[in-house]
Every structure is written in C-alpha cells, then in structure tokens.
Amino acid sequence: MIEYERIIDISQPVSSRSSRFPGDVPFSRQVTVSYRDSGVINLTALTMSPHVGTHTDAPIHCYGELADGKDTAGTLPLEPYLGPAAVIDIAPFRDAIHPQHVKEKLERLAPFPARVLFRTNQEISYEVFEETYAHFSVELVDYLAAHGVVLVGIDTPSADHAKSKTLAAHHALIKAGIYWLENLDLAKAAEGEYFLVALPLKFMELEASPVRAVLLAGSLADR
Ligand SMILES: [Zn+2]
Residue 61 catalytic? Predict the structure, then answer.
C-alpha cells in the first residue's frame, strides 16, 4: 500500500491560453452539443498537439512511420511513469544540464533515484513560450542511464533546446531506454523524494500523450 500525506499537482493547465511549441497546434474546443440547446448534455470535441501542457513523448516522435502503429503513446510501458522519484532543484537554470550541475545532489541520495525530475523554474508561465529554457545534454542522459534511471522529467517544453534539429537528447534517451516528461510545473515541489504518478493515455495512433502528473508526498510505504 502507498501511504502519503498530500498530493502535489505538477501538471500545467491545458486551455486555449496554453502556450505551445512554435508550429504546434494549440488547444481548441468545439461545443458539439450544449446543455442550453439540448436540455440534456454539454458535449465537446477538442483539437490540440499532444505536446501542449504536461506530456510524455513516445519514441515514434523522433523516428519511423506513424502508420506502422509501433512505439506510439499507447504502447508505452507504465512502470516508468509510476514509482519513487526525486525532484532536483537547480532553478533558475536556462541552459543544457550537464552531470556536474546535478551530480552532487543526486549522489547524496541512496539509492540513486530511478526517476529524476529537474526543477529549473521557480515559477511557470504556461501561457508563454520561452525560447531559452533548460534541457538535457547527452552527457547527462548517459550519466543517468549508467545509474539505472528509467524516467526523467523537466519543467520546460522539451528535452532538447528549441532550435535543435538533431534532437540529440531525445535520441540519447530512447537509446538508453529512459522515458521522459516535458512541461511539468515543479514550482510547488521542493527538492526531495516523492512517489510519481504520471500515466500516459492509451493513444494508439499518437506520438505523445498528455499526462496528469502528481507527486505523492509524505510517508511513503513500500519503497
Ligand atoms: Zn513533446
């Protein structure tokens, strides 16, 4: 059984005000049936890039043919998205994260955390896309992989910098078998150890999925 004292919501709001990566389709909603007109229900349809708000990328985001249906969000393993996680606070930070920036904090923890979330912003402005943001270096990915990390998360729009065409960090993560969360809101998550819950939806034809990411804080049984 998992015991906890409180839930920390680390998800960004998703609305028509949410920022998106340049070129991505923003959230929008169409009311298909209104309670006012029908007297029965409100019903909507939504359009958005699955990279709006807090989400995970599936490997097929970075290679391959979507039509094959392989490596899509719906095929992601669930274990990485559920389990003990450490928040490492280096805020404010707006550059490539290298092992030397986090090594000391991480190696103080024993055992080395299987899931690591990097807090690089003291505050999240989810309506604003900032071109300069913290992201992962390949060296960091290799370092975390060597320590058995299965998932990383960051409170910025991408594992790579905004202008990257090679997506070196994304590819390094895939190669290492590490899954990743983007656009977290860690403003209210102090550095420390938690239990992460951030399951992707079972979208069988998408290259990413929104997640509702939370940290369970307090006394954690069965660790
Ligand atoms: Zn993404």
Answer: yes
